[in-house]
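Methods — Computational structure assignment.
A single polypeptide chain was analysed. Its primary sequence is given first, followed by the predicted tertiary structure written as structure tokens.
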Amino acid sequence: MSLNEKSETRQPPSRDQSSLKGSETFIEQHESPRRASTQNLNAKLANPLAGLSHEQLMADAEQFAKTHELAEYAETIQKGALIAQDPTVFESLPMLTDEDRRVLRREVTHKWDQPKTLYYLVVMCSLAAAVQGMDESVINGANLFFPSQFGIQPAPGAGASREQWLVGLVNSAPYLCCGVLGCWLTEPLNRWLGRRGAIFVTAMFSFLTCIWQGVTNSWPHLFIARFALGLGIGPKSATVPVYSAECAPPLIRGGLVMMWQTWTAFGIMLGYVMDIAFQNVPDSSGIRGLNWRLMLGSAGIPALLVAVQVYGCPESPRWLMMKGRYPKAFESLRRLRHTEVQAARDLYYIHVLLEAEKEVDKKTGNKFLELFTVPRNRRAAQASCLLMFMQQFCGVNAIAYYSSTIFVQGGFSQTAAILASFGFGAVNFVFAAPAVWTIDTFGRRNLLLVSFPLMAAMLLMTGFAFWIPASSPAHLGIIALGIYLFTAAYSPGEGPVPFTYSAEAYPLYVRDIGMSLATATLWFFNFVVALTVPALLGAWTPQGTFAWFAGWNLFGFVMSLLFVPETKALSLEELDQVFSVPTRTHAAYQLKAAGHNFRRHVLRQKVGKMPPLYEHEGAIGEKTYAAA
């Protein structure tokens, strides 16, 4: 995540509207002490080197080098410490050489010019994301075959039968494991084995359980194998983005972390390719259902490639420093940066951040409880968990896991259904790429307010298409078109926003535990969706099921309008101000702004501008309410 710090002085705006009367007093009386405490902690973590004189900084850096077995690099580390304190003034630092300045200048002007080792790491992380996508999507095609072999094929028109629930249980098994066990193993695996070790173990779990799925002989056996797959999915999904963030230079960190979403979408598409490739494979002697077994087993191949590749990458410098292995951390950074000065800069800054985090830990109580007892944190948790919940209940994974089944119910042949599912995966991948640009230009909140209504409309269109007579060419065409348009609306909006929003909404001192809460919310409701969709299709038919998720998208629009503030390009102090506005005040303002913008843009009435809600300049207010 990259936040643009803003240093300009802003005058608090006047607020003369009756709907907001008294809100400033409320915030001042009830929020200011806690906000000040949060801001102090954030300030300490945002730049622990702020306020130090150059002389003190040089002495501290020299002492650091001697204490951590890096005395031979003392001068280089001193240079790095000066740059880390304020990266914008390197041109005027007399200690730097012309070559140092040239490298640092090029780092800004050519930010994607990085060592080959870093790009090797990017390839490995992208492949790990693709494994994630394949683990999720290969079951889509297999759903057409294994239920009948294992005696749980739902009878047409039988409603929400036992068989429907069993199919949903088998599909949802990995996400149940993620919620109750897998995600909670992330911290001990990382602590004991490091980032590379955690990725290796989870990739091997993915490889072995994919093969295991392919040799099962009953639905309970397949359920157990898929449950174990969650031990690979959960910790890997939490570790890989953290690993890439800890190894990436600050200027491209956001882009590399966003690649997780993009390449997961690619993996989902690749899973459908495997379904197409193996659907017509005939059974061989003694092996029944070879096609779906190969589908499920195919996801293990890229997982094995990740396991083979990961130890060719350097370990996370931050993890090595947490273990006290500073020379190894410096060696790792030297592989990930062009010069020793850049490596020394990042090494020293990571060190002072770790020291600041230890100090903050001593001053805070139970961080998990503070997510709910501190109003500023509670509002961030409310918004991030809402978006994680909506990423599942917007309906995307109902399609990702069951699109082949839905297409068959719509009258497609099995081959056409899998091909149409591949189209869904391709659209998801293609439209995920623009999110890297739109999320920092259009804004998180605006993307949501556009994405939810479009998704609702496309789901309704898809559901209504099932009432078109099957003899009409429009029947199949509109079903596929509706799903593709839904995906195009999802991929740059509700797709990438929840993870990005959750990563920046929390104060730094509770960000890790806050992100854990948001991720656990995601996986739990992923399990709920995967479990219930077959029963919904049986009880409500595709028309009712698509209408159900369309309704949730309208709910998501209203909740985002009222309870999700914008976070794009805000400093830590501004984020504290945004989340310190009482929920009732924020919701009341958004309702008034929605009516104001309806009169202004729809009825074309001449109305004055609304005063901004926050203490900093009104960029949020003016940009956000335009989409309301």
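Note: Residues 114-313 form a domain with the Growth Hormone; Chain: A; fold (CATH 1.20.1250.20).
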